[in-house]
Specification:
Layout lengths: L1 E7 L5 H14 L3 E6 L17 H10 L1 E4 L13 H8 L4 E7 L12 E7 L9 E2 L4 H12 L11 E2 L5 H17 L4 E6 L8 H13 L5 E6 H10 L6 E4 L1 H14 L7 E5 L4 E5 L16 H13 L3 H17 L19 H12 L4
Parallel strand pairs: 1-2, 1-3, 3-12, 5-10, 8-9, 8-10
Antiparallel strand pairs: 4-5, 4-11, 6-7, 11-12
């Protein structure tokens, strides 16, 4: 069966790791037709300052599946985020980030195997903000004070934290479905309901209601700060973590740290109309064109994509090939060597060569 896939190289080092990923995906033998689309900082001038042109969204909706390289997000200024825009425009409400130990990776942990499932459209990460000094901020501050909600300094910027019953129910249902389809034993809801009783409290209440409808999968909940401590102490106790948007962003990076870093952290974003797969690290623009950056997070995102396309045999073979290259430790980038200045480190394209060799195909 042929699959048409939207392919977004990204910017910065994105095109290098994207091309390495495309090569290993082609080497699996799965018939993939690539619909190449450009997005990010590099195309803004050609599209009136828009880093995510409409035709890119149309391509993803038409094909139903996409894989993308990292795209630069400015800090503090500029456009908010192509990733956030994609999730909102396509209602990609569920993010899945597996965190799994591979033999040969330098880490304090050896047997981590958990999944972070993050609600992708609500919470503080939705970016509903009022600027410091604005009329709207002043009005909201006055309104809060009138109702005895506590004094807010007049020079404050404000962010709103919407968490809905609808959004919570569908992400928790998604987490239980993911656990059941993948043989997982337990779902843990992550929250701060002891303090934020009307937002995180709602999240916890709805999560418990959904859990009562899925008694074949174990359920528990953890306050987010306690969870982060326990993940560092004993990550083996956790399996599937379902989180509101902001906690999911933070906890998933912590979990990536348990297994060797963001260079091995794949991700997938799922909605009712499309799925978009991507590495979870940034675009590292200072390394652009140097053939230096680790492509394995995007390759592992390709493994996730193959499983989504029901190409499970190819997905398993590709993951095994990546794991073998990691275990051997010869054809890996500088960040996976015992010393970051190891002269035996290879480049992005050479990692792809090694994985393809392990697949038994030369292209």
């Amino acid at each position: 069966m042929r699959h048409r896939v939207t392919f977004i190289p990204g910017d910065g080092t994105g095109p290098e790791i994207a091309e390495a990923t495309r090569r290993v995906l082609d080497a699996t033998g799965v018939e993939l037709d690539w619909d190449v689309q450009e997005a990010g900082a590099d195309v803004m001038e050609r599209h009136g300052g828009n880093p995510l042109p409409d035709h890119v969204l149309e391509s993803i909706e038409r094909n139903g599946v996409a894989i993308k390289g990292p795209i630069t997000t400015p800090v503090g200024t500029g456009f908010r985020s192509v990733n956030v825009a994609l999730r909102k425009s396509l209602d990609l409400y569920g993010q899945v980030r597996p965190c799994k130990s591979y033999a040969g990776v330098r880490s304090r942990y050896e047997t981590v195997d958990l999944v972070v499932i993050r609600e992708n459209t609500e919470d503080l990460y939705a970016g509903i903000e009022l600027e410091e000094g604005s009329e709207e901020a002043a009005e909201l501050i006055a309104w809060l004070e009138e109702r005895g909600q506590g004094r807010v300094r007049p020079d404050s910027g404000l962010s709103l934290k919407p968490i809905s019953v609808t959004g919570t129910r569908r992400i928790v249902e998604f987490a239980f479905d993911h656990a059941r389809r993948n043989g997982r034993r337990k779902v843990t809801a992550v929250h701060k309901a002891n303090i934020m009783k009307f937002t995180d409290g709602l999240f916890l209440r709805v999560a418990r209601e959904v859990a009562a409808e899925h008694e074949d999968v174990e359920f528990e909940d953890r306050i987010v700060d306690n969870l982060t401590m326990q993940l560092v102490q004993r990550p083996e106790e956790y399996d599937v973590l379902v989180c509101p948007n902001l906690y999911g962003d933070i906890v998933s990076d912590l979990c990536a740290g348990l297994v060797g870093g963001l260079g091995l952290a794949p991700g997938g974003n799922f909605g009712t109309r499309a799925a978009v797969f991507e590495p979870t690290h940034g675009s590292a623009p200072k390394y652009t064109g140097q053939n230096r950056v680790n492509p394995m997070a995007m390759m592992l995102s390709g493994v996730m994509m193959l499983r989504h396309l029901e190409e499970r045999d190819a997905a398993d073979r590709l993951e095994e090939a990546i794991a073998a290259v990691i275990a051997e430790g010869t054809s890996v980038t500088y960040d996976m060597k015992p010393s970051r200045d190891d002269p035996t480190a290879v480049g992005t394209s050479q990692v792809a060569d090694a994985v393809i060799d392990r697949l038994g195909v030369r292209v």
